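Question (not urgent): is this output format expected?
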Amino acid sequence: MGEKPSGKLIVLSVDGLRPEIYRAAEGRFPNLAELEKSGASAEAAETIYPSTTYPAHATIVTGVAPRAHGIYSHLASLDPTEKARPWCWFAAALRAPALWDVARASRRRTAALSWPVSVGAAIDHNIPEIWNPAVPDPHSDFETSARHSTPGLFGEVAKQLTPLLGKADPDQLRGEAALYLWNYYRPGLLLVHFVWYDAKAHSFGPASAEALTALESADRAIGRIRDAISADPATTLVVLSDHGFVPVEKEAAPLVAFAQNGLFARGADGSLSLRRLGTISAGGSLAVYWLEQPSAADRRRLEAAVDELQAAGAVQEIVDREKLEALQADPDAELMIEAAPGFTFSERMGGPLVSDSVQDRGAHGYLPSRTGMEAMFTIVGRDIAAGKNLGRISLPQIAPTLAGIMGLSADILASEAKPLDLR
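Got this back:
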């Protein structure tokens, strides 16, 4: 691709950012707009299924779909009755090499900040995304992340951020932490995950005032990082996202229908416990698993529960095993239920089957073909055409492209995706 082997790379992920959101707000996000003018950008990046953070970020760094890299959803537990379900935090679950493995093979220094599925990864300076699932606010749980970080690194970075603690939002803190890692350690690869827009888009909707204010914070952090590297022509800056977002008005609770049809065990006190059926909700979809061989009666119960959801208008499509294979999605799921437009699925186990959505006004997790699930991708650096329109790309194309940008062999990756032509 013409890049020198000394090239450095910074990858900034703005979780949940759909390209239309910032492109429609002319002048409000100047740094994102300037990067699109200065580099090459995709009209849209097609995500994976389900369109959620953890499997998508695993695809971004491995170049392969979930069926190949092994991260099928955000949760590591199939038990919906479990009170505090663990997430897919640990890099050991990845079944495919990642960009940090490519960098390490060529003795490049690596760093990562809150990158999903990176706990225990072969990253030199790593503050991973992980929290105690029992705490009410993951953004306030610093102890768990500190415990799983490169020894001493969390305290070192926290000391630099002391004046901002209690005053700054999570993306401001991550932006300043990223600047510290970059300025002090000069890694050849730096991965950063911004989360505040995603959090506000869930709570208030993707185009809400609260979500756009959060995106302004990410835009400012991106601008500060861009300015910090502007004097180094050998550094390439990538800003991307993992999936898009759509607004929702209704919440459907599939587990209510499952429980009413006897698919969970019920205790004397009315509490539910696991029987043969496991589930994971992705918001826009719900995966269903048989944990034991189902009886014919169990299959009829599942069919009846799905019929109730369909009768309530909450279902767009039943994604069967054949289509899951075509999507390169979870091989263990019996099926996935795709929510109808305007609906999100919760894991509520009581109350009405359908209600107005109070907790979430925005959702993702739908099929990648659903309008609004598109991710974004912009890259700026040496030998990259300014203002180039890359058209519609796919997430698996990103990893081999970025390996080439660093002058590294993409052969270490398992990806067969074609790298992007950035000239």
